Amino acid sequence: MAITLLDRLSQDNFVPWKFHARNADFEPAANASRINIRNVTIQQQGIDSAAILKPLAGEVNERYTLSITTAGSVAITAVSSIGILRALETFTQLFYRHSSNAGVYCPSAPVNIIDAPKFSYRGFNMDVARNWYPPSFILHTIDVLAWNKFNLLHLHVTDAQSWPLDIPALPLLSQKGAYRTGLSYSRQQLAQIQEYGMYRGVQVFMEIDMPGHTSSIALAYPDLITGYNVLPDWSTYAAEPPSGSLKLNSSAVYAFLQTLWEDLLPRVEPYSAYFHTGGDEVNANVYKLDETVRSNASAVLKPLLQAFIDFNHGYVRAAGMTPMVWEEMLLQRNLTLGQDVVVQAWQSDDAVAQIVARGHKAIGGNYNYWVRLFLSLSPILTGVEQDRY
């Protein structure tokens, strides 16, 4: 169902009680004379590129101007359609709902705004593997990101704890790797999430973290994982339980990866310029248990990790996307990454400077800054359909 600008103004706004002192008289009288918005002029001054709906960071000019006159005229200009989208977002946020339900009002006119993002990459990393969220919650998160003019949603979609992503060519992954039946994203749901974001200026891209953080694969394909769920000494082999990593020198692992990429990448490419292949917290000790390696020595592991990364990034590039990795692949494992690879820092802000000094674009995502997302658990306990909790 299409949502009009009038719908947004009337349905999404609120009475700003908390912006004012208790019992303050901050609203215009409901029966006061008013000047209505009489016309809205929107002018796009440039032609959108073919990548407008899934650009690399910085490829789209998001700058816009917005004015509201005391006579009720609105003018919006922008170079791109995404700039227009950002302007309309700001426009709706200039209005508040009247407590009498008499309509909405703008207390700020006349308004003249010139706005542009300081950062070309404004992302939110959402972990849906350790903590599963229904598609409806992710769509709401996209709405919140759009309201705040974020432009990317990074879905950390698989991890050691669960594999909640349906891969039709490898159906056992989610059938056995999800927390329970129904707690996985179908092909159709994933497309819906990405398309929903695309039309709101929020590009949704996937991360399949590997070779570490992959022990959930063992629930479906145990022969692909080394050091699975070692107890009680899991911390010798992993950053968190359950331990387990993809074997590094196994032809079966490479056959699995080929099947995975040939299924997943063509499905996400229409909506994503990026694909994240993980690479964080690879524990060298686990490869002493890997019968294809039997060593934790850097001299042994580095060429195997290099081959692993090159294989995966070859598929990502062939699908028309830009690879992303976590900082350890560059800064700790000292792998040779293509110049197109974007490196995401998470352990410190200093890592950003180190990444840039090595010639790569960097994303700063310090793990000390995070938000906890809450949703009711009661429908899970009572068996309400999955898309309602």
Structure description:
With 389 residues, this protein is an alpha/beta fold. Helices cover 28% and strands 16% of the residues. Helix 3 runs parallel beside helix 5 and helix 6 packs parallel to helix 7.
Topology:
Layout: H1 5-11, E1 39-44, E2 64-68, E3 73-78, H2 81-93, E4 96-97, E5 104-105, E6 111-115, E7 123-127, H3 135-147, E8 152-158, H4 172-177, H5 187-198, E9 203-208, E10 225-226, E11 245-246, H6 251-268, E12 274-276, H7 298-318, E13 322-326, H8 328-331, E14 342-345, H9 350-357, E15 362-364, H10 378-382
Parallel strand pairs: 1-3, 7-8, 8-9, 12-13, 13-14, 14-15
Antiparallel strand pairs: 2-3, 2-6, 4-5, 10-11
Number of discrete helical segments: 10
Helix/strand-derived category reads: alpha/beta
Query: In percent, how helical is the residue content?
Result: 25-40%
Distance between the termini: 22 Å
Specify the overall morphology.
Answer: elongated
Strand order of the largest sheet: 1-3-2-6
Integer average pLDDT: 92
* Rg computed from alpha carbons, rounded to a whole number of angstroms: 24 Å
Low-confidence stretches: 377-389
Instruction: Encode the helix/strand succession as letters.
Output: HEEEHEEEEHEHHEEEHEHEHEHEH
Biggest sheet character: 4 strands, mixed
Sheet-strand content, in percent, reads 15-25%
The number of strands is: 15
Q: What does the oligomeric state look like here? A: single chain
